[in-house]
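Allow me, if you will, to draw on your knowledge of protein folds for a short while. I have a record of one protein: its chain in single-letter code and its fold written as discrete structure tokens. The full record is reproduced below for your convenience:
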Amino acid sequence: MIRIRDTKHENTAGFLSSAISVAEYYGFVPADTVPPREKNRDEKRISHGDINFARRDERTLAASAKHCANLKSSQRALMVWRMATPRGGERPDNVTLELHVIGTPLPIAEALLIVVSDAIAAEAGVEKRTLTLNSIGTHESSNRFVRDVGTFLRKHVESIAPALRPRAAQDPLGTLVQLIEREHPGLARAPQSVEYLIEEERRRFWDIIEYLEAMSMPYELNPRLLGSRECWSHTLFELSTKDQETGATIPIVFGGRYDPLTARVTGSPVPSAIASISCEIHGKTKARSEQKPNASIFFAHLGTESRRRALKVLELLRRESIPVHQSLMYERMGDQMHKAKELATPFMLILGHKEAMEGTILVRETFTNSQEAVPIEDLVSYLRRHRIGVTA
């Protein structure tokens, strides 16, 4: 949970206003502005009571998953933010800002959530941030991992609290999460989920790591970052900071891909990912809505490598307050060009594979189709010199 005293803000409202501004720069919109989709009467849904939750925050996520997966969108992927409603058993002195990417199974969803979450924390003045990652694969492929966790628990049953022992047989992974939270001394010998990933899942996990390396963002692998298989699949991530007085780790962001939970609570297999940012309640809490300038630039990419490097360019432009429309969730250039035409932006930034390798980007004037290759390190000064996308 982010503590206001660790930020540059005077109250919770100031932090939330800043966080929402960063999220909306990247294209996230308020969830309450998106209409719900028509529900299929044949959808089979599962109540929360039928789900084995492993983490305290998963019950709140279940309500959010049901809400967000039922939103209607004509976009390739829907990106929304919402304030989560605390549920029973949770701390009453904090508020949670959730960022959701709905509708794409691609690793860019998790990568974008990590980048935006880190940008929010950095903008707020949170220092010494640490990003940790883990992958639990899919429910089908992690059966051997869970089986070995069960074997591990049986070997150490005498050291497990009596109240937790009955759960060990029915929900080994949830029990392991509880032991991790209680800092059980035998955890060093527990099975690690990444060792059980199949090749496709390893490749997917590595794709996210390559996004982070393209951003020059340090990270650590943490095998103790786990959650219920009925809620999560593939990547889990956590952003934390250090208490300067005690040295204790303070988690501030948790997230990952929650496809299994969406399928269970809505009856629809909708790809879904989240970053949940928790902040203490201190003083005013109502975020201020700011007028956003209209973007006159559309940012397009071509190819996997250019998409990886696009995140760093977008963050550069955000820090310089140059608004752009982006299309990171699109794969084909034709789709991106169609979107740019709909938006009728007078300028485009195009990052292809060649440009990504050379460290340049194309600046194109839409009306004339004239374009110029500009070194990325000179992009901001070029745009300001030509008054492209500059509002002041």
DSSP finds twelve helices and 13 strands in the chain.
